[in-house]
Amino acid sequence: MLKIFTVCGAGVGSSMMLKVFTQQIISSENIDAKIEATDIGSLDPNTADIIVTTSDFANVIRNTTAKIIRIDNLTDKQYLKEQLLKTIKEINQ
User: Fold this and answer.
1) pLDDT of residue 28
2) Would you state the pLDDT for residue 83?
3) What is the domain-level CATH number for residue 22?
4) DSSP character string of the chain
């Protein structure tokens, strides 16, 4: 099972929106994953397979083996879907 974190500053705004969008995509593709929204201060990046966040927060995340998906237009579900599926494919190779 994949572990996906959606990350923002407080863990309740954009990360929750990204969590909902990510869950919709993962469910529609029948992918087994656990998705959690969190704030940047609570994130342990080494417990994630994939981190979905904005570029500002992605630039702060260091020393992780997790794949980081940067999304700056939070309403662009098509971009998020493309990036998630591409990243999951890379992980599963």
Assistant:
1) 95
2) 97
3) 3.40.50.2300
4) -EEEEEEESSSSSHHHHHHHHHHHHHHHTT--EEEEEEETTT--GGG-SEEEE-HHHHTT--S--SEEEE-SSTT-HHHHHHHHHHHHHHHT-
Number of domains in the chain: 1
Residue 76 falls inside a structural domain = yes
Classify residue 71: in a domain, yes or no: yes
Task: Please give the structure tokens belonging to residue 12.
Answer: 């309740």
Q: One digit per residue, pLDDT tens: the chain, 93 residues?
A: 999 999 988 766 889 999 999 999 999 999 999 999 999 999 998 999 999 999 999 998 988 999 999 999 988 999 999 999 999 999 988
59 located within any domain: yes
In a domain, 48, yes or no: yes
Whether residue 39 contacts residue 10, with contact meaning beta carbons closer than 8 Å, is answered with yes
Structural domain of 29: 2-88
